[in-house]
Structure formats: structure tokens, C-alpha cells
Amino acid sequence: MQDGPCVTFLQWALPRMDLRWPGFRRVRGQVCKRLQRRLRELRLPDLEAYSHYCLQQPEEWKILEALCRISISRFYRDRGLFTLLGKELLPELATQVGATMDNSLRIWCAGCASGEEPYSLALVWAFQLAANYPDIHLQILASDIDPQLLQRAARARYRDSSLKELPSVWKERAFSRVGDDFHLRQSYRRPVQLLQHDLRGPAIKGPFQLILCRNLAFTYFSEPLQRQVLEKFQQVLLPGGCLVIGSHEALPISPSGFSPLNSKLGIYRKAATPLIPPVREGCSNNSAGP
């Protein structure tokens, strides 16, 4: 498929789905290949015909939206972030948990794809922090909109290329070899709960001490939708808790409720108030990402 017609189509279609073209500029090739396959399935000659088809068949927009989902993930992606999480941020949050007499450190990974990010957090905790905080119970909620990606996360089997940034000793201890794949051992998967959830829908019940939403909402969503997502994060993030976005992303506004903790790594802190033990609400069964 020629690049020009695909770009023109995406610039027309993305705003109609509350998505933004600049976020797709570098990854458009992946989407254009999917669109080419969809044209063959529908036996349509070109994207102009497909645009008319979308206008005539409203249900096609859900299919088109799925074709525009981008998932690029691997273990320990952005080593600098995970180093800081293990050495500074998670110990600080664990200490806050202990100060409130609540023994649960709750983390939400929004847009978890096939599980590499939440499982990386579980490994950081297991290998660097668990021995120092024996009374703290780690809970990681990993959500995504795509049920197929969540099924892959549940299988927890990965190619070697997905593990290339993970410390080698962690790889040896946490994974077992199954053919050409590496299977994450059950004990390291235990803190992670998988949940199908659309970030554009109702907020997940909290509270959380840490939320990660990297390279998703603040890259691909329209600015009004980004603001809505940010408001939901504000609602469920505890005072003094942290929000982590992609290192190349920016918050849609300069909210008074957040201040940059490490802007280079995309880490923001919610304004703190006097520490009050949170009310345990658990996780809803509502069913992340474009």
C-alpha cells in the first residue's frame, strides 16, 4: 500500500475515533499493512472505497479501531526507569504503605499488552525489594482492552527477544525454557492480576500508590480524551502516589494535582495530603488502550 493514501485515510479516520495522527506517524506502517489485509477481506479496491464503507457500516469502526492498536512491549523496557523504580520509587512507596499500617502496595499497569511490564515490576520486587519489606504485599493490576494480548499475558511465554534487556541472572532464575520460548515461573506471576478494561470507560476502583500508563493514552488518544483519562488516574491514585507515562510523552495539561518528579523518565507525583489509611475497595470487574 502506498504511504500517501494511507496517511490521508488515517488523518481522516483517527479523529473520528478520538485518536490523534501525530501519535501514529512513526508506527503507521504497521497500521497500513493491517488496512491492506482488511481491504482484501472486504474485496475493496482502495482506502477511498473503505472510507465510504465505514460511513455506511457503523460497526466497521470497531474493527478499524482494533486495527489501529499498537503494542510494542518487552521486559525491562527503558532500563533507566526500572532502575529508578527498584532503587528509589518502590522503596519509598513501600515505606509509605508501612506508615499507614496498610500492608498492600497496589500498582496499576494500564495498557499492559502481553504482560511484560507488570511482570517486570514483579521481578524487580522479588529480586530487589521483597526481602527488605517482608510485611508488604505486592498487588499489580494489569489491564488491557485486547483479550488476545491478555491471553498471551496469562500464558506468560515469551521469545528470547522480549527478554534481551532483562538482567541475565533474573532471566535464569525466573524463566524455564520451553522449546524456543521462555516461560515465567508461577511464583513470579502470582502478584499480577489480569483484567480486560477500556481506559475510555469507567475508572477502575482503587486506590493505587503507583500507576503506569506508558506509550498509550498520552501518545495515541486525542487531547480531550487524554484529559479524561488523567482525571480518572487522579481519582484512584493516592495522595503522594506516582504516575508514570512514556519518556517521550507529556501530560495534556499542567494539572495542579501533579508535579514532575523526574520529567526525563515521565514520572509525576500527585500532591500529598496528611497520610490517612486508605479504604480497601478492591478491583472492579469492569472490563486498557485504543
Report what the structure shows.
With 290 residues, this protein is α/β, with parallel strands linked by helices. It has two domains: 3-67, no CATH class; 79-270, Vaccinia Virus protein VP39 (Rossmann fold, 3-Layer(aba) Sandwich), CATH 3.40.50. The protein is 42% helix and 18% strand. It has twelve helices and ten strands. It has helices spanning 3-13, 21-24, 28-42, 47-56, 60-67, 79-99, 116-129, 147-155, 168-174, 186-189, 217-220, 223-236; strands spanning 104-110, 137-144, 157-159, 175-178, 181-184, 192-196, 208-212, 237-244, 258-262, 267-270. The strands form two sheets. It has a seven-stranded mixed β-sheet. A three-stranded antiparallel β-sheet has the order 3-5-4. Helix 6 crosses helix 7 (116-129). The longest helix is centred in the first third of the chain and has 21 residues, at 79-99. The protein is globular and about 60 Å long. The relative contact order is 0.14.
Largest sheet, if any?
Answer: 7 strands, mixed
The strand line-up of the biggest sheet is 6-2-1-7-8-10-9
CATH class designation of the largest domain: Alpha Beta
What's the end-to-end separation, in Å?
23 Å
Order of helices and strands: HHHHHHEHEHEHEEHEEHHEEE
| Unreliable stretches covering 5 or more consecutive residues | 274-289
CATH superfamily (homologous) name of the largest domain: Vaccinia Virus protein VP39
Query: Which range does the strand content fall in?
Result: 15-25%
> Helix/strand/pairing class, anyone?
alpha/beta
| Number of domains as seen in the coordinates | 2
**CATH-derived architecture of the largest domain:** 3-Layer(aba) Sandwich
What would you call the shape?
Answer: globular
Mean pLDDT: 91
Q: How many helices?
A: 12
